[in-house]
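DNJC3 protein
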Amino acid sequence: LKSNPSNNEEKEAQTQLTKSDELQRLHSQALSAYQQEDYEAAISLLDEILAVCVWDAELRELRAECYIKEGEPSKAISDLKAAAKLKSDNTEAFYKISRIYYQLGDHELSLSEVRECLKLDQDHKQCFSLYKQVKKLNKQIESAEELIREGR
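Tokens:
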């Protein structure tokens, strides 16, 4: 604006600056609500921010945490999957998705997600531990299903 001032550009810059200030205020309120364990309010504020900042992986992860606390695992998975795509090496998102699927009793999807985590980092302690646990469960379920098919 200093090099080539014009009314339209100045108005646009002011509008963007005002919008930025508003988003920062909403972000502060969302963090405060999360820390006070008011997850419903935090989700509402994060919804407003993410309507503008759709590519922010950290905000999606925060909203996913709120969804987990509110008992809405499918919405948490949706946000975590988006966050995993937005960050190239987001092992934590894959780990959390796998853990949620495991808690929901979907061992196959849990195994698939934990494998994605291990593809990114073979030495990820939490993912490797969960992988062993889910793989063992998967093997036991397959064995039980085989016994059922045989009528034993």
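The helical segments are 7-35, 39-52, 57-69, 73-86, 91-104, 107-120, 125-150.
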